[in-house]
Amino acid sequence: MDIIFLTEEEAIQLQSFFLKHDVDEQFAKIQDTFVFSLPEKECYMDILAHFIIHVKRGEFLHKILYEKFYYENAEEREQIIEIVSEMCSGKREELIALTGKINELELVRNAVGDFLESSDSVMLDSLLTFRLKEYQETLIRFLHVAIDEYKMEQEYQMFINMLREYLKDRTPRMRTVHLSIDEDINFYDENFRAMKKEQILKMVDRRLLAIHPVYIDSAVIAPLLSMAPEKIILYTPYDEKPLVRTLINIFEERMIILPPFKESK
């Protein structure tokens, strides 16, 4: 079986991939093409499928992002492609719910197997262009979702940076705040006295809610930013909850997280 490449660069890519997986296969230059002559088709189906997933997938996504979505910055493209990779590997379940799951290896391996069975001499470009059309369409579907997610993550990071800047310029109104996020949310002062809702609301800087009313949580984030305490001791079992992660991102070294406590009655 011959696998034909039109460029030496691509032939070297596959040869390097083979070597990383302890397969010693060399290509030969025949006229204007570069050819791998492989002894048995079945032995190479899996490694060719992995080559497409781990090498060609990224190249395809870079090209689509650059040519169709006009992402000229390579670092931005890499971040979006990383989201697609996580979706393909089964992570990012909230995003996969929007696209549907795929068995990437099975999809690619089946296409490779059908292609290798079609002839004893095949061009990799033909495999990528024609036999992997369903796979490429799936990647583009994932890409649309990944781009939206990337934009949201960028917007979220800008929001976090804005609040950090606000906090940096804010004079602390309290030295320590104890905060419990469990079944209920409760604030306590540095002497562990419960703070009433009216007391907390009076401390809120109304400018915060005017700047970003959609994102700024008026029950927790706005009061804490307004108090700008030197230290926040957070008691919670929900260290992966979005609100808790946002608090950690904003307050950073000011935040200490401890297990929940039970109030004495």
TrEMBL record:
| InterPro entries in UniProt | Spore_YtxC
Q: Which domain of life, per UniProt?
A: Bacteria
Q: Which Pfam families match?
A: YtxC
What is this protein's record name? Sporulation protein YtxC
